[in-house]
Amino acid sequence: QTKWLLSLNQMDFVKANQVEASFVPTQYERALSKIQQPYNQKILFILVESLGVSSKAEVQSKILEPITRQQALFEYYEMGKYQAPDATIQAEIKELCNQDIKGYGLRLVADASFPVCLPKVLADKGYQTTAFHGANGKLYDRFSWYKKAGFKEFLFSENFLTAKKCKAFNGICDDEVFRRIKDYFKEDKSLFFHWMTLTAHTPYAKNDIYSQRLDCEHYNIANNEACRNMMLQAQFFEGLARLNNQPEMRGVEVVLIGDHQPPIISGNTRFGEYEYKAVPWVHYKIK
């Protein structure tokens, strides 16, 4: 056990968590740059775990189909793809704070040294700013840096002990979150809600898949990690489409983007089934 612990502590990921994060202006394009100004009263920003861009256009269209069919429900609808960083935390900081980071020790950064992030800008304008992630708040120091970024409220798996759990980090299933989001937006107040999804995290658990809408065999995708990832993403967009239809969501501006290309063990599968480092983004406002 001691040998295993020492080996674990030499992992690059663990080492990076011990290094105080430093910031530089991001080199990446941001989905949150799409939000309307003056700011809409209600904004939902979703960073979707391991949402990549399929190398087959028909597969990508099938994954997004539940919301592309809803365009009559929206005031406007636009979509595209951007190049993405390699890690979830890099994507969160890129989107929310317009910065790239080196070192993941965000708890080590003094409040006064933290960049001015969009949640802080909106909180200063009177918005309720809430962040939700289905894993434990210690992961990537979210228990610490969410407050520094300007979130007045942040919720993790430890806040919902009886919620249904999925494989990834034994965290809260994404389907559990949709209805909680709806309840937030039913109130007549200015709100910025950030949701970092979880269920589609590697290893893309088969037991968490209930929708068979995406038929991998039909698209000549092997029964492998890529298939499971894409099925989980197709399932997510079904849930999002149901959320869009709720009366509580009227007037909400929605921005979503993948955090990074899905991690896949097989290089042939990863580079064959996905566009390299590309993630999709979608932006719309519900009437």
Note the topology.
Elements (H helix, E strand, L loop, with lengths): L1 H7 L3 H6 L4 E4 L16 E7 L8 H12 L5 E10 L4 H10 L1 E4 L15 H7 L3 E6 L8 H8 L3 E3 L18 H12 L5 E6 L28 H20 L8 E6 L8 H7 L4 E9 L1
Parallel strand pairs: 2-7, 2-8, 5-6, 5-7
Antiparallel strand pairs: 1-4, 3-9, 8-9
Helix pairs in contact: 3-8, 7-8
List keywords for this structure.
seven-stranded mixed β-sheet; two-stranded antiparallel sheet; 287 residues; alpha/beta
In brief, what are we looking at here?
The protein is an alpha/beta fold. Helices cover 31% and strands 19% of the residues.
Mean pLDDT: 93
Number of strands: 9
Relative helix content: 25-40%
Structural class: alpha/beta
Number of helices: 9
Oligomer: single chain
Query: Terminal Cα separation, in Å?
Result: 57 Å
Could you give the order of strands across the largest sheet? 3-9-8-2-7-5-6
Question: How is the main sheet built?
Answer: 7 strands, mixed
Round the Cα radius of gyration to an integer and report it.
18 Å
Give the uncertain stretches in residue-range form: none
Give the helices and strands as they follow along the chain.
Answer: HHEEHEHEHEHEHEHEHE
**Spatial shape:** globular
Strand content: 15-25%
Tell me what the structure shows.
- The protein is α/β, with parallel strands linked by helices.
- The chain is built from nine helices and nine strands.
- The chain has helices at 2-8, 12-17, 57-68, 88-97, 118-124, 142-149, 174-185, 225-244, 267-273; strands at residues 22-25, 42-48, 74-83, 99-102, 128-133, 153-155, 191-196, 253-258, 278-286.
- The strands form two sheets. Strands 3-9-8-2-7-5-6 form a seven-stranded mixed β-sheet, with helices on both faces.
- Helix 3 (57-68) runs parallel beside helix 8 (225-244) and helix 7 (174-185) runs parallel beside helix 8 (225-244).
- The longest helix has 20 residues, at 225-244.
- It is globular and about 55 Å long.
- The mean pLDDT is 93.
